[in-house]
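thought: user wants a sequence for this fold. calling inverse folding tool.
action: design(structure=
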């Protein structure tokens, strides 16, 4: 089923399959931060992140959010619709942390009255710079209609994700998603939703259960990723 390697990213590999317009995503055990300046890995990460993405994408589908997910394969892979990834990293924030907190000199943890949606240009060589809507249009990456659709989907995804995590005692601080265009032009949620690209804080203890444990050398990285998966498994079918 797995054929030529089409692309290798920091945490995933994409293979061609024998089905037209369907590709296979393999989740790797590697872990990177700060534009891959910091590298690590742990045994079982690929499996955890494949399972977390799959559970969440299937849950989002139930709420009418289109995703590229088709089916899981083995322990670390999934079949997905082939899409052309829109090179915009869409970040949604409910609580201020990370780069935006730093940029405005605000302490991490400020609760936002309204979710904040931000665009970053997906380009490792440029270190994914912040991008305004007009800059996205100027770059010819998207048209106005796409921007409106991406923001609308991002906010809907945020509402669903907040509920999914609230049920398992986790506060969804922020997350990054990517959208792709299917061959028919439909914009769908693509890439992944995992502790690699979300900030997840335990409601009771405020402990971080995400990649910040690796970025900030807090230890218990694997245990935290496993905790997120186990809680999800106990709540989402
Ligand atoms: N994020 C990501 N990939 C990136 C940049 C950010 O997945 O290349 C996620 C990050 O894990 C966090 C959210 O997007 O959940 C917001 O990240 P932020 O802009 O605060 O950047 P950071 O603090 O990670 O530099």
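)
observation: tool returned 237 residues.
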């Amino acid at each position: 089923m797995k054929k030529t390697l089409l692309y290798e990213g920091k945490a995933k590999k994409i293979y061609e399959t024998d089905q037209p317009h369907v590709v296979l995503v393999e989740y790797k055990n590697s872990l990177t931060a700060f534009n891959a300046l910091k590298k690590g890995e742990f045994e079982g990460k690929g499996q955890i992140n494949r399972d977390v993405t799959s559970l969440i994408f299937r849950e989002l589908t139930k709420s009418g959010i289109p995703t590229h997910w088709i089916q899981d394969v083995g322990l670390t892979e999934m079949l997905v619709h082939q899409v052309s990834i829109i090179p915009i990293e869409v970040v949604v924030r409910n609580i201020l942390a990370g780069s935006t907190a730093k940029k405005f000199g605000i302490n991490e943890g400020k609760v936002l009255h309204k979710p904040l949606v931000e665009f970053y240009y997906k380009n490792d060589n440029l270190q994914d710079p912040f991008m305004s809507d007009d800059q996205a249009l100027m770059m010819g990456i998207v048209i106005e209609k796409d921007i409106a659709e991406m923001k609308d989907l991002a906010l809907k995804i945020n509402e669903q994700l907040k509920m999914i995590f609230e049920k398992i005692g986790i506060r969804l601080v922020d997350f990054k998603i990517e959208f792709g265009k299917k061959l028919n032009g439909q914009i769908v949620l693509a890439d992944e939703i995992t502790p690699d690209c979300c900030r997840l804080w335990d409601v009771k203890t405020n402990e971080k259960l995400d990649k910040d444990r690796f970025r900030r050398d807090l230890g218990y990285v694997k245990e935290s990723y496993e905790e997120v998966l186990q809680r999800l498994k106990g709540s989402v079918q």
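thought: summarizing for user.
answer: Here is the designed sequence. The chain has two domains: 5-81, 86-221.
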